[in-house]
Design brief:
Blueprint: E1 3-4, H1 8-13, E2 21-25, E3 31-35, E4 41-48, E5 54-62, H2 67-84, H3 88-94, H4 101-116, H5 120-135, H6 145-156, H7 164-182, E6 199-203, H8 210-214, E7 224-228
Helix pairs in contact: 4-5, 5-7, 6-7
């Protein structure tokens, strides 16, 4: 089981051997690429639950999933393991056939935004910048209010993306997108954006909301800045 620093070029150039070979990525712990004698290449992730039995999660075929895609999925799975003890292999079985945020975003753009909005390119950019990197492969039905809040916090956080106005846009966009999903077969019964606070506090950073911007004023305090999110 050779270990090497995988690159897009390396992955593309790997040739089949007489027997299948598993190549592990030295950059992303647990990430591997299986190359069969027939030339099929499949990404997988090796991990342990609570330090016990070693498990294997099949991510998907290359080139459907690029190296960057595979690393992103492992990063998300590793975070879920550390935070909530979620088993990605078990979740894959449970969510088999469930439609993802990536699918919803594509359908929302083609069937709603591009048809009804002249500014659809802004939606496309915002999704690619702030939503899809975190949620592309997540089942739509698994997104909860807490996930929405965490995403918006990360965008507005001065130690993170530091883009409070983008958080305003993303919240509005997500609300429209989940409303779009409600009338389609995405397995949700409510819009997870509803019930999240319209007022978001960003500690110690000067930020103008879209409402405040239109009024040409910002609400600023020493300890925090209140930003209206609609």
């Amino acid at each position: 089981m050779p270990t090497r620093k995988l690159t897009a070029q390396t992955v593309q150039s790997l040739k089949p051997q007489s027997q299948r070979v598993d190549y592990f990525d030295s950059t992303t712990p647990g990430l591997g690429l299986r190359v069969t004698s027939g030339g099929l290449k499949t990404w997988f992730f090796m991990y342990r639950i609570n330090g016990k039995r070693l498990r294997r999660w099949t991510i998907g075929r290359y080139p459907t999933f690029s190296l960057a895609d595979a690393r992103e999925k492992v990063q998300i799975a590793t975070g879920d393991l550390a935070k909530d003890g979620l088993d990605p292999a078990a979740a894959k079985i449970e969510n088999r056939g469930a439609r993802t945020i990536g699918e919803l975003a594509a359908e929302y753009l083609t069937k709603h935004a591009m048809v009804k909005k002249k500014s659809w390119r802004a939606d496309d950019w915002q999704l690619k910048k702030d939503v899809l990197p975190a949620w592309r492969y997540v089942a739509v039905k698994n997104i909860k209010r807490a996930d929405v809040v965490a995403l918006l916090d990360g965008i507005a956080d001065p130690d993170g993306r530091n883009a409070p106005q983008s958080a305003v846009h993303v919240r509005r966009l997500l609300s429209k997108m989940f409303n779009f999903a409600l009338s389609r077969d995405y397995g949700i019964e409510y819009n997870p954006v509803q019930g999240t606070d319209r007022l978001h506090t960003v500690g110690g950073v000067r930020a103008c909301s879209m409402v405040a911007k239109s009024a040409r004023s910002c609400t600023v305090s020493i300890a925090s800045v209140t930003m209206a999110i609609r």
